[in-house]
Design a protein that fits this description.
500 residues, alpha/beta, FAD/NAD(P)-binding domain, 2 domains, six-stranded mixed β-sheet, 15 helices, 22 strands, 36% helix, elongated
Length: 500
């Protein structure tokens, strides 16, 4: 054999051996139910399926469970035991009608009804597994008390369900992502291909899969393609949510739904956590102006975060400035803030360290201070005459206790008169995306013919159908509630499908 012939033979043999090794590098597992994602939705589905006797494998691509759930505060329910004990007479019918009217009937009515009907039972289910709740609360003054605050917040919920899943025999593969769904010749789920952090492929033979990967808020390309805000939206409390689960379902034939809905949060300063006292002044209902120096809304819509986000979406550059003076700064220090930031910075919190926080904001380039409106306008690059006219009009309406422009409650009309003058730059925030995969009231994934794909389910932020065009913060706790309840519904229907 010539040297050249030998080299060709050796190269071919090496390639064949590499391919042979790659085949055997892919391990194989089996399960009755594979759950992709270990947030609230995925863990609820896993525990439900394991309780029913199913062999469950959970895939989680991050190094820890919980995801955005770890930052949640409470969960929605109506007709719960905790509400009845407080004589809170919220009914399932009332919540359903409110939810459908809020979405202008763009929501999936049967899905919304299934979620609402299951919500009180889910509180009992969570308590049975050891989770503790505080008294029901509202998300803003005078709001509906549908928010069941969790003792230990969302992290306690995630850890409780994670422990229950393990106790009931579920296998958890951390740093392992779902990549591809395999169907058999009849269009039924037959397997799921996963990939661990080292790039090793794992084939999991299964009849059912639950997609619960938490949406795509960290995927700038998908945000640009599917949402009005595009890639400029600032994610809050989210990492690794890049839409693999949604794309995997689409590739398997799933229909899309709700990809444009964002869980808009209060506008604020990037890089500040939920407990930041620097962000608190940026989220007060004082004077807001856009980059033209014009006032553009009733600032008290900050109580309903999505409204504030929607208003900001229409402004140049999607940037606004919260304007206040020395008197208002003193008010926030001595009297406290008018709008709380969840349970982390409650309403009436006195910002006693505000001077230091404002200096930190100045250093970061998000807070501007000046001894005159003209100098403040120069710092934020706004026409000085236009800004002065806006402030003069605002002060006049504050003096008369009547907002003739946007009808804001006059108790939030803080005049802007006394130097120094402050401007806080705020940009749009979002807690997540709220759709992608079309499901029915059984959490079954639907194809483009609106038929269920046998064995495929979706839950939580990956699933579309609960909202119209805007997140509903009025029925507080609805996103976490939807995640846990659709997770349970998916788990229950997966059990029925496999005959458990």
């Amino acid at each position: 054999m010539s040297k050249k012939t030998f080299m060709v033979f050796f190269a071919a043999w090496s390639l064949a051996l590499a391919g042979y090794s790659q085949v055997f590098a892919q391990s194989t597992m089996s399960a009755d139910v594979v759950v992709v994602g270990a947030g609230a939705a995925g863990l609820a589905a896993a525990v439900t399926a394991a309780e029913g006797g199913a062999k469950v494998i959970i895939l989680e691509k991050m190094p820890a469970v919980g995801g955005t759930t770890n930052y949640a505060e409470g969960i929605f329910a109506v007709e719960s035991r905790l509400q009845r004990e407080k004589n809170l007479n919220y009914t399932k019918d009332w919540a359903f009608k409110y939810m459908m009217e809020y979405t202008h009937w763009r929501a999936n009515a049967r899905l919304a009804r299934a979620f609402i009907d299951k919500s009180p039972e889910t509180i009992d289910w969570l308590e049975k597994h050891g989770l503790k709740f505080k008294e029901p609360a509202a998300n803003y003054p005078g709001g509906y008390m549908t928010w069941h605050i969790i003792d230990g917040r969302g992290k306690a919920l995630a850890q409780t369900l994670y422990a229950q899943a393990q106790e009931k025999g579920a296998t958890v593969l951390m740093r392992t992502a779902g990549k591809e769904l395999i169907k058999d010749g009849k269009g039924r789920i037959a397997a799921l291909i996963a990939e661990d952090a080292a790039g090793k492929k794992i084939r999991i033979n299964t009849k059912t899969a639950v997609i619960a990967t938490g949406g795509f808020i960290n995927n700038k390309k998908m945000l640009d393609k599917y949402t009005a805000f595009g890639p400029d939206i600032v994610p809050v409390g989210s990492s690794g949510k890049t839409g693999e689960g949604i794309r995997m379902a689409w590739a398997a034939g799933a229909d899309a739904f709700g990809t444009d809905v964002l869980q808009l949060y209060r506008p604020g300063i990037p890089g500040e956590g939920p407990e930041s006292h620097l962000n608190a002044p940026a989220r007060q209902p004082y004077l807001w102006v856009n980059q033209l120096g014009d006032r553009f809304c009733d600032e008290s819509i900050i109580f309903s975060w999505p409204y504030a986000g929607n208003a900001l979406a229409n402004q140049p550059g999607r940037v606004m400035y919260v304007i206040f003076d020395e008197n208002t700064k003193k008010y926030m220090i001595e009297k406290g803030i008018d709008v709380g930031v969840g349970v982390m910075v409650p309403v009436a919190t006195k910002l006693t360290k505000l001077d230091g926080e404002l200096q930190r904001g100045i250093d970061r380039g998000f807070v501007f201070v000046a001894p005159s409106v003209k100098e403040l306008a120069a710092k934020i690059k706004v026409d000085a005459a236009r800004l002065q006219a806006t402030i003069d009009e605002y002060n006049s309406m504050a003096d008369s206790r009547q907002d003739r422009l946007f009808a804001k409650d006059p108790k939030y009309m803080q005049p802007v008169r006394k130097a120094n003058f402050y401007a806080m730059k705020a940009v749009p925030f979002a807690l997540g995306t709220l759709g992608g995969i079309k499901i029915n009231h059984k959490a079954e994934v639907l194809d483009k013919n609106q038929e269920a794909i046998p064995g495929l389910y979706a839950a939580g932020n990956d699933a579309g159908g609960l909202y119209g065009d805007s997140y509903d913060v009025v029925l507080a706790g609805s996103t976490l509630g939807f995640a846990v309840n659709t997770g349970r519904i998916a788990g229950e229907n997966a059990l029925k499908y496999i005959g458990k």
